[in-house]
């Protein structure tokens, strides 16, 4: 929501601005009454303060005081004519723009659009400022030291590095250098380079190397022993026994026949 606050007593201009404004329009005769409104809205909403031109001395005094009290407030001087010298004085005092008493709706639309862009820019600047506060900055001397020391290390270790590269090339097919993404300072993504230490597509050949995995062999032996133990605990009689299953009971066929025969003897 946008607020348009007008300081002045020109009823014709107040009526026109009230009709053209896009948002909430308030008109007050003095700066003190405008302060009561601005104190409640300037931190929460986008606000424009229209200052009706009177005498340059009084205007400069009021605008300077308002600018000190509300540094981020957008102030517009309402005037039909102004000299270049007067314009410089108003700008130095804190006025941002001028507008005529007889204006159009397009002017207010442009002003409203400008306020939205101004607000978005402030948010971006604030976010950038916050990021810079917590970002890591490498000292210049450290960067120079890293470059010099790493260059010397590469120079002295180049024979060993070349031999390692040749060994990797002769050992297996594929690229000598392995590249992957890493997160560095300030969450910047960079390419991490190292000598390849695995075969290309090694994940596709895992089953081929299970026989060489001692832990896998031990696990297979343990599973086999448990299966044999469970099998040995089952009697041959239990395997041959037939079970009769009902909703109310589970009984072997032999016990069921014996139970029925006992019932017949009892009834007879």
TrEMBL record:
A GO molecular function annotation here is:
phosphotransferase activity, for other substituted phosphate groups
Q: Which residues cross the membrane?
A: 147-168
Q: Which residues form the Bacterial sugar transferase domain?
A: 142-211
Note the InterPro entries from the entry. Answer: Bact_transf (IPR003362)
Report keywords, A-Z.
Membrane, Transmembrane, Transmembrane helix
Q: Which domain of life is it from?
A: Bacteria
Please report which protein family the annotation says this sequence is part of: Belongs to the bacterial sugar transferase family.
According to UniProt, the name of this protein is Bacterial sugar transferase domain-containing protein
* Organismal lineage: Bacteria, Pseudomonadati, Bacteroidota, Bacteroidia, Bacteroidales
């Amino acid at each position: 929501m946008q607020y348009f606050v007008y300081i002045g007593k020109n009823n014709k201009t107040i009526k026109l601005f009230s009709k053209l404004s896009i948002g909430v329009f308030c008109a007050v005769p003095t700066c003190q009454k405008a302060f009561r409104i601005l104190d409640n809205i300037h931190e929460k909403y986008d606000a424009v303060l229209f200052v009706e031109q009177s005498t340059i001395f009084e205007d400069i005094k009021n605008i300077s005081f308002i600018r000190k009290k509300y540094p981020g407030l957008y102030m517009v001087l309402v005037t039909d004519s102004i000299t270049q010298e007067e314009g410089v004085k108003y700008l130095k005092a804190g006025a941002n723009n001028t507008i005529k008493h007889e204006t159009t709706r397009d002017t207010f639309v442009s002003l409203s659009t400008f306020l939205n862009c101004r607000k978005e820019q402030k948010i971006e600047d604030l976010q950038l400022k916050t990021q810079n506060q917590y970002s890591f900055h490498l000292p210049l001397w450290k960067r120079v030291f890293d470059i010099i020391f790493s260059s010397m290390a590469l120079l002295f270790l180049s024979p060993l590095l070349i031999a390692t590269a040749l060994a990797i090339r002769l050992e297996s097919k594929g690229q000598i250098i392995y590249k992957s993404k890493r997160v560095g300072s300030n969450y910047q993504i960079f390419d991490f380079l190292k000598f390849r230490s695995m075969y290309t597509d090694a994940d596709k050949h895992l089953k081929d190397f299970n026989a060489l995995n001692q832990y896998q062999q031990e696990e297979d032996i343990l599973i086999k022993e448990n299966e044999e133990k469970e099998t040995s605990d089952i009697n041959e009689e239990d395997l041959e026994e037939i079970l009769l299953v009902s909703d109310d009971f589970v009984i072997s066929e032999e016990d069921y026949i014996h139970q029925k025969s006992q019932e017949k003897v009892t009834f007879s």
